[in-house]
Design goal:
8 strands, mainly beta
């Protein structure tokens, strides 16, 4: 495939029609393992571990009372961990995401 074709696919896949405001982050929630090592299925309500997701879009950052912009620590493409009950589920273009404040994110995973 040509570079131009691959670039157009990349741009098309990564262009969002949604931009979070301020210090909010749009996350694509990644599937977590729902079975134990013995094969028992654990319902979502019983899982206490943090969830993992991929950052799809970020806001411009929070502002101090003086109007100074505090830049975001996370960026598009980061894999992050967040609490099970963090954020609000939203549906954009038929796909489900979670939107939350950056402070609800526990950390950035270096796993690709």
């Amino acid at each position: 495939m040509s570079n131009l074709y691959m670039r157009s696919i990349f741009i098309k896949e990564n262009s969002m029609k949604f931009k979070p405001l301020h210090d909010r982050v749009l996350i694509e929630v990644l599937d977590s393992s729902e079975k134990t090592a013995g094969g028992i299925i654990i319902p979502d309500t019983a899982q206490e571990k943090p969830q993992e997701g991929k950052v799809v879009a970020v806001g411009g950052g929070a502002k101090t009372e003086g109007g100074k912009l505090i830049p975001m620590d996370v960026k598009v493409g980061d894999r992050v961990l967040f609490g099970k009950w963090s954020g609000t589920e939203v549906k954009i273009d038929g796909k489900e995401y979670s939107i939350m404040k950056e402070s609800d994110i526990m950390g950035i995973s270096n796993k690709k």
